[in-house]
Amino acid sequence: MNLRIAIQKSGRLSEDSIKLLNDCGIAVKSSGAKLRSEAENFPVEVYFLRDDDIPQYVQDGVADIGIVGENVLYEKCKDVDVVLPLGFGRCRLALALPRGMTYNEPADLEGMKIATSYPFLLQNFLRKHRVEAEIHEISGSVEIAPGIGLADAVCDLVSSGSTLFMNGLQEVETLLDSQAVLVRHATLDEQKEEILRKMIFRIRSVQAARKNKYILLNAPNNTLDIIFSLLPGMKSPTVLPLAEEGWSSVHSVLPEDEFWDKIEALKAAGAQGILVVPIEKMIL
Ligand code: ATP
Ligand code: MG
User: Fold this and answer.
1) Which of 12, 148, 197, 229 is the most buried (most CB within 10 A)?
2) What domain range includes position 218?
3) Ligand 1 within 6 A of CB of 141
């Protein structure tokens, strides 16, 4: 019995979803014209769908698990469980007004007409701030609505902000910070639970590997104390004597986000010949 996984057919989440499966050793190709595809070497079957339909499919158990943006998930309010965040597809649902319009607080939206593809999340925000505004639901190209006189403001997904900028809009509020998440049907039979457990284990190993780098460096023995203090404290680094008297080679793992600061500090402490290597998998 295969675990059925729903991913976006073509769009912003497709490539990263396939890449994640591939990095987990699950061989699936991008969909092409196909709507479903079986992995060659792992008991999963992939369904390629519109992202909007994924929460419903998983709720209904037509798919067992799925990869979808939190924005879509929370807008649709389906009864599915979030298994884990995936760290890609990052964006935010934001309110934007034509540049030059003053905005201080949500009350300034009173009486406005706001265009959005996220009526539920927008309504929640307005209700929370006790604002009465008209929601105009459109399915795409929301950002042009004020320019063509369809609305006073928009509530739309933003990543860099350049689309808003090009349309003369300025972001004034963030309603939701979003990323892709793995979701699952509430109940699965034991066989599928086992496949899902394996998948989650692999995803965690891939995520840990992406967040860390393997570092090798050479240092004079009298600088090792400082160098150890700069490296993560949890486990001690590996230290090997070099052929050259009085020098050692030090191996350790560094988190990506501390990386550049640490490299500078290590160099200043006397480290030389620093090599940084990507980690393929990290088993936790
Ligand atoms: P579909 O045809 O599957 O319905 P779509 O046009 O609704 O596709 P995409 O534009 O491909 O969707 O976006 C898919 C998801 O990617 C969004 O729901 C969101 O979670 C995420 N995303 C990340 N950055 C952005 C962005 N700048 N704009 C829109 N979505 C983004
Ligand atoms: Mg969509």
Assistant:
1) 12
2) 211-278
3) no
Domain boundary among 155, 189, 209: 209
Residue nearest to atom 8 of ligand 1 (CA): 11
Same domain assignment for residues 221 and 255: yes
pLDDT computed for residue 234 by the predictor: 54
169 and 188 housed in the same domain: no
Ligand 1 within 6 A of CB of 178: yes
Whether residue 233 has pLDDT greater than 70: no
174 and 95 in one domain?
yes
**What's residue 1's pLDDT?**
85
Are residues 71 and 120 located together in one domain of the fold? Answer: no
Residues 6+ away with beta carbon under 8 Å from 146: 97, 98, 115, 152, 153, 154, 167, 168, 169
Q: Are residues 108 and 173 both part of a single domain?
A: yes
Same domain, 74 and 10: yes
- Residue 54: CB partners within 8 Å, gap ≥ 6? 6, 7, 8, 63, 66, 67, 68, 72, 183
In a domain, 283, yes or no: no
How do residues 189-224 score in pLDDT, each as one tens digit? Answer: 999 999 999 999 999 999 999 999 999 999 999 999
- Ligand 1 touching residue 50 (CB < 6 A): yes
Query: What pLDDT is recorded for position 273?
Result: 96
8 CB near ligand 1 (under 6 Å): yes
CB 8 within 8 Å of CB 51: yes
The reply to whether ipTM tops 0.95 is: yes
Most informative mutation of 7, 9, 10, 12 for ligand 1 (most atoms within 8 A of CB): 12
Is 55 close to ligand 1, i.e. is its CB under 6 Å away? no
